[in-house]
C-alpha cells in the first residue's frame, strides 16, 4: 500500500483529509485523529536512510517533544535500510541513526505514545532505529520485513546457505517475513480490515514497557530471550 492510500484509510478522504506532506522520500505533518492532534513522520519510496533523512526525522520528533508535550507520534516505515554511500559514512551515519533512535526513546520517556507502522518495506538499520524503538511496532499484512537476506547472513555467519534455508523453515529468527517478526515479538500485531480502528486500538493499548521478549516467548518465536533477560536482571 502506498502512503497516500494508507493516509486516506487512516484519516479519511476529501479535499484535505490529512496534514501529511511528502518532501522527496520524507513524510511529515500533523493530522487530527479522533479529535486530537497526532504527529506523523516517516519515509516512502523504499527510502535509504542516510544522515539527512535520519536527522530530519529526529527533528520532527524533538520538535514534538518540545512544542507539544504528550502528543502521540506515528512512524510510517518504508525503508530499504541505511544509505550505503561514502558521503554518509564520512559524515557519521551511525551517529545520525543513533540520534534518531535516542530522539524516539526520549519521546517515550517524556510520555509520548510512539507507534511504528511498517506499511511497505522495513530492512536493516533503517528499521532498527525507528519502528523497533517505538512503544509498539505494527505492520500491514503485505509488508516486507527483514534485517539481513539469507545469502548475506551466510557470508557473515560462515554457515552454508542450505543450512540457513533449512533453519529458516522452522526458526523465525533465521527467516524474513512479517509473520516471523510477529512470532518473535518484534511486530506486535498486523492491521487488517478497518485501519482507523486498528490505529485507535494501537494508541489505546501501546505498552509502557518493553514486552517484545515476553511476546516472543508466548508466540514461540523467541523461546529463551525473556528468561535470559530475567537472569541478567537477577544477577545485576
Weakly predicted, low-confidence segments: none
Radius of gyration, whole Å: 18 Å
Structural class: alpha/beta
Shape: globular
Which fold name is given in CATH as the topology of the domain at 3-141 and 190-205?
2-enoyl-CoA Hydratase, Chain A, domain 1
Beta-strand fraction estimate: 15-25%
- Sketch the major β-sheet: 8 strands, mixed
> In DSSP terms, counting alpha (H) and pi (I) runs of 4 or more, how many helices?
11
Level of helix content? 40-55%
Order of SSEs = HEEEEHEHHEHEEHHHHHH
- Terminal Cα span: 45 Å
List keywords for this structure.
236 residues; eight-stranded mixed sheet; globular
Q: What do you see in this structure?
A:
- The chain has 236 residues and is an alpha/beta fold.
- The protein has a domain at 3-141 and 190-205: 2-enoyl-CoA Hydratase, Chain A, domain 1, CATH 3.90.226.10.
- Helix content is 46%, strand content 21%.
- It contains eleven helices and eight strands.
- The chain has helices at 3-11, 51-67, 86-91, 93-109, 124-128, 150-157, 161-170, 178-184, 195-205, 212-219, 225-235; strands spanning 20-23, 26-33, 36-43, 47-49, 73-82, 114-123, 136-139, 144-146.
- Strands 1, 2, 3, 4, 5, 6, 7 and 8 form an eight-stranded mixed sheet that branches.
- Helix 5 links the parallel strand 6 and strand 7 (136-139).
- Helix 1 packs across helix 9 and helix 2 (51-67) runs parallel beside helix 4 (93-109).
- The termini are far apart.
- The model has no long low-confidence stretch (mean pLDDT 91).
Amino acid at each position: 500500500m502506498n502512503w497516500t492510500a494508507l493516509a486516506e484509510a487512516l484519516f479519511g478522504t476529501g479535499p484535505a483529509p490529512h496534514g501529511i506532506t511528502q518532501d522527496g522520500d520524507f513524510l511529515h505533518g500533523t493530522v487530527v485523529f479522533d479529535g486530537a492532534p497526532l504527529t506523523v513522520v516517516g519515509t516512502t519510496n523504499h527510502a535509504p536512510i542516510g544522515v539527512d533523512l535520519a536527522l530530519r526525522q529526529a527533528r520532527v520528533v524533538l520538535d514534538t517533544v518540545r512544542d507539544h508535550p504528550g502528543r502521540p507520534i506515528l512512524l510510517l516505515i518504508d525503508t530499504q535500510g541505511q544509505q550505503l554511500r561514502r558521503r554518509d559514512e564520512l559524515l557519521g551515519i551511525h551517529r545520525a541513526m543513533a540520534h534518531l533512535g535516542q530522539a524516539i526513546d526520549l519521546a517515550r520517556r517524556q510520555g509520548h505514545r510512539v507507534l511504528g507502522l511498517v506499511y511497505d518495506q522495513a530492512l536493516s538499520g533503517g528499521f532498527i532505529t525507528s519502528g523497533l524503538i517505538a512503544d509498539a511496532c505494527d505492520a500491514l499484512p503485505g509488508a516486507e520485513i527483514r534485517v539481513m537476506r539469507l545469502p548475506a547472513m551466510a557470508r557473515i555467519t560462515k554457515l552454508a546457505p542450505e543450512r540457513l534455508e533449512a533453519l529458516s523453515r522452522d526458526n523465525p529468527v533465521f527467516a524474513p517475513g512479517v509473520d516471523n517478526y510477529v512470532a518473535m515479538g518484534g511486530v506486535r500485531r498486523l492491521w487488517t480490515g478497518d485501519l482507523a480502528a486498528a490505529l485507535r486500538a494501537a494508541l489505546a493499548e501501546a505498552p509502557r514497557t518493553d514486552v517484545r521478549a515476553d511476546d516472543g516467548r508466548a508466540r514461540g518465536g523467541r523461546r529463551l530471550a525473556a528468561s535470559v533477560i530475567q537472569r541478567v536482571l537477577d544477577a545485576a
